[in-house]
Amino acid sequence: MAQLTESVKPADARGRTAPPRTARRRKVRAGGAGKQHNGGPIAYAFLILAALVSLFPLYWTVVAASHTDTDIVTPPTPLLPGSHLIDNLKIVWDQVDMTKALVNSTIVAGTVAISTVLFATLAGFAFAKLEFRGRNALLTIVVATMTVPPQLTVIPLYQIITDAGWVGHLQSVILPSLVAAFGVFFMRQFLSEALPIELVEAARVDGAHSLRIIWHVVFPIARPAMAVLGMLVFVQSWNDFFWPFIALSQQNPTVQVALAGVGSGNHQIDHAVVVCAALVATLPLLLVFAVLGKQIVSGITAGAVKS
Amino acid sequence: MRTSGRTRRTAVIAVAGLATCATLITGCSSDSKDDAKGDSGKSSSGEQITLHIGDFGSFGYDDKTGAKLFSEYERLHPNIKIVEDNVSDGQQYWDSLKLHLQQNSGLDDIQAIEIGYIAEAIQPNLASKFVDFKTVKGFNVDDWVSYKEKEATTSDGKVIGVGTDIGPTAICYRTDFFKQAGLPTDPAQVAALWNGDWSKFVSVGEQFKAKAPSGVAFTDSAGGLFNAVLSSQSAQYSDESGKLVYDSSPGVQTAWNLSAKAIKEGLTAKLQQFDSNNTWSAAFKTGKFATVACPSWMIGQVAANSGPANKGKWDIAQPPQAGNWGGSFLAVPKSGKHVAEATAFAQWLTAAAQEVKVFQKFGNIPSNKAGLADPAVQNATNDYFGTAGAPIGKIFSTTANAIQPAPIGPKDGTVKDIITKNGLLDMEQRGTSADKAWSNVKAQVKDKVGE
Amino acid sequence: MATSAPPAGWRSRLYRLDTKASPYAYIAPFFLVFAAFGLFPLIYTGWLSLHHVELGQSGSGTWVGFDNYTSLWDNQFFWKALRNTFTLGVISTVPQLLMALGLAHLLNYKLRARGFFRVAVLAPYATSIAAAALVFVQLFNPDYGMINQFLGHVGVHDIRWDSSKWPAQIAISAIVTWRWTGYNALIYLAAMQAVPADLYEAAALDGASRWRQFLSVTIPSIRPTIFFTIIVSTIGATQLFGEPLIYGGGVGPTGGTDHQYQTLSLYMYDKGWQVGQLGQASAVAWVMLLILLLIGAAQLLVMRANRRKLGG
């Protein structure tokens, strides 16, 4: 029986086809592999269109960030990058401590993403596959907490962090975001469809306790969802403005807080500098996408056990 | 027991993961400079302290693009280091400042307050959080132009802020468009066209329209016109007790009627000042209007938005009636660690000599009387405007001295936004009739202010 | 399943403890953090909604009972915001989810540059909303925007995207759709990756076309995830805030000069932050919460009924 659990260890995630271990198991393969048709020209046409529409504002950010303020507010609007990128970058770094902001945001969004993904997977697994008293009621509460509008709760939240002495410190933005109802609900829905109950039961029968099941059964299957959740939460945390702006200051800012201190010119906002700072704030996210995006390919154990 | 071996490893990794988070968190807290916020040393004299000044937009104090007042003060006081906590957007700044004041946390040693919010700040809830300058040595209300410190005075006579700049308002106009429309172009003659009465300004607009170059409106926006007219009125939104009386205020009625008339006659370019989509700023360059009400801080805007190609086409004339539009105060929260030092610094920043330096660098008109009278201000000209450089010092200081103070109230800003953005702009953009627009305004004021 | 006997002795007790207690241990972090940072604000907001209290005021304000709620009943701006929230929610959510489903299906193909496409569709979610708004505002500019220029060629003239109610709502939902389609597509993609391959093989053997397979295999298999996105999008639509605020610029908080596109969240923000009437704003927040709970309950019932009908 130990073999059975063995055969779903995460190492298999790389090898797209794991050899069948026992007669009870059938071929295990990358979730997509069997069904993945090659994309036809129409698929490519649609995707290229979608990519263009998606990327254009980002491209325009590059254009605007490399012109002067006057250039970009005057019709005709420029469509090609200009030569002022370095000048604008200098102004950004002159006006705010962007280096510190980038480091802070990496710490905040990284911690929040890791913790949210971890706790959401644990809770999502419990809600999806484990029997316990009050499960449905508790799940309903989780979903209900998502409905709380954020624009008002900052006022009492600020009272909490004042009492705790965290104003201006990064924990004021990290701690309230360590978990997300959205993540728990997402993982619960994903695992309820993707994780065959037989795998869990088999491991149980094998005597594995639940942490071991999580490590060897749940995590490998949840990997694409964990990667997607990680990306979404990282971006959300990175782009969060309203609360960090109130809790932090320009002395210890996240990127979005720093952005609020950028662009003050002589009695008017310098849009080119603002957009340039926004570009600086966006690039690290694309890097995170590129790294985590690779993890979405997989789903090794889908349908691993015959029912 | 392979199982338990594996388990232990799993557990170790999980714990290590959590520990990393924990280290990161504690790491960042000890890393935070905010420990130093207003407290990087003992306050006993001679020891190193850091003063934080919170402001918005541009005050022109900083060492990079401003008048380098921070480094100058640091030279005069070697034990003091100045850190500016700047936010571009004044509304965002004020929103979070209110919450910070309520909880007495996250405050800087000095907080700037814009004139649009000062009436809120002098209400008992907030006023009690600030140092009363009346009790501060060396402070004299009469150092400022008459209406300035009055605005920062609470009903029980406390003064919670020292005045930085003011915004005496003139009229910027395009000489080329005026010429094409058969109007005079010399500032004195132009001022004579509308001297003493804003309704004459609208009449000039009608003359302009009759012979206007195509696609050029007389003035940029009804909202701008309304603000300029109202700021010259002695009765505005509130009465002496701070109670809203906008509905029966003759000043509001005058400003509303003139603006509504300008819209009806098609004299406005239907733009929204400072709109986020830049239509307004773009319209300077493309020449969509011939006049704009010009508070002193607006001339930089006019020049930058119009661009070098339009240099010499704009000029500045005295307004029909003198009014003030804009300006700020510096206030010192009582809960700071270095209240005495912060108070002294705020007084220094707003003393005549420093306000003159900021004017020379940034064009902010001093609210300090001695600063306003300084030859450096009086004789200042601006090359972008007029044929031989417009005498902006003369124009703005003349206006500044002619301004009559008007009572203000805490809800003025709310009503102003509703009138200009939901009333007049709605008329301009959607063709709403003046009567309907006014009843909309009243309904919205009732909803927001509850009166 | 039980091919071996349960372990005996202390191990067995430990085992039973594990099955009993571990679910609670796994959900505990969520509830602990929620109790610390979510519950108090929620209750406090409810308490504020029963008071007349202003932002910046220390102390509790005056008790007014349910006045803040009852006054919403005959408040034209509240009803307008409620209607706008509903219409904006529908026109921004429905096309968005359908497009996301299609996009995810395409992204699930074996593709060249698959990684690039996946990153590209998520780019709108990462792009600074202020920068994106600048672009969209240019596109929708009634005087010289590209969209009106194009429409002019096909005989439609002078649509006021900034001030007319429906055009403005359409423009805003275009921004919402642009921002969130890729986000939902990736969520669907993750779920599609977990659909067992043999289901497709079986369907293919039965001669089902790709479209047929999409309808009869993919969609039913990822139903819980679709349910998830519907719930989350409904909540997101009810709390719609950033896009109309930035699209409106100076008239953002009031959702246009005549409140043409003011949502409930904007109305609440306008009351709470711009005007400082915390009690009234809190009442709006709680009304939003109750509306969402009602919608949620309705959705849950519909889903249950569906599942029963499909025998799933």
From TrEMBL, chain A:
SUPFAM superfamilies named in the record: MetI-like (SSF161098)
BP term (GO), one: transmembrane transport
Cellular compartment(s): Cell membrane
Region ranges (Disordered): 1-36
Native species: Actinacidiphila alni
CDD domains: TM_PBP2
Subcellular location, principal: membrane
Transmembrane segments annotated in the record for this chain: 42-60, 107-128, 137-161, 173-192, 213-235, 272-292
Entries under Pfam families matching the protein: BPD_transp_1 (PF00528)
PANTHER family named among the record's database cross-references: ABC TRANSPORTER PERMEASE PROTEIN MG189-RELATED, ABC TRANSPORTER PERMEASE PROTEIN MG189-RELATED-RELATED
Topology of the protein relative to the lipid bilayer: Multi-pass membrane protein
Key words, A-Z: Cell membrane, Membrane, Transmembrane, Transmembrane helix, Transport
InterPro entries xrefs: MetI-like, MetI-like_sf
One GO CC term, this protein: plasma membrane
Coiled-coil segments on the chain, per record: none
ABC transmembrane type-1 domain segment(s): 102-292
Full protein name: Cellobiose transport system permease protein
The family this protein is said to belong to: Belongs to the binding-protein-dependent transport system permease family.
TrEMBL record, chain B:
Name by which UniProt lists this protein: Cellobiose-binding protein
Domain of life of the organism encoding this protein: Bacteria
Signal sequence coordinates: 1-21
Keywords: Signal
Start and end residues of each stretch annotated as Disordered: 430-451
Organism: Actinacidiphila alni
Annotated InterPro entries: Bact_solute-bd_prot1, SBP
Automatic annotation (TrEMBL), chain C:
Transmembrane segments: 21-44, 86-107, 119-140, 283-302
Keywords: Cell membrane, Membrane, Transmembrane, Transmembrane helix, Transport
Single GO biological process annotation from the record: transmembrane transport
Residues of the ABC transmembrane type-1 domain: 82-299
Keyword Oxidoreductase: no
CDD domains associated with the record: TM_PBP2
Membrane topology, as annotated: Multi-pass membrane protein
PROSITE patterns the UniProt entry points to: ABC_TM1
Sequence similarity: Belongs to the binding-protein-dependent transport system permease family.
GO terms under cellular component: plasma membrane
Subcellular location: Cell membrane
Protein's recorded name: Cellobiose transport system permease protein
A Pfam family this chain is assigned to: BPD_transp_1
Organism: Actinacidiphila alni
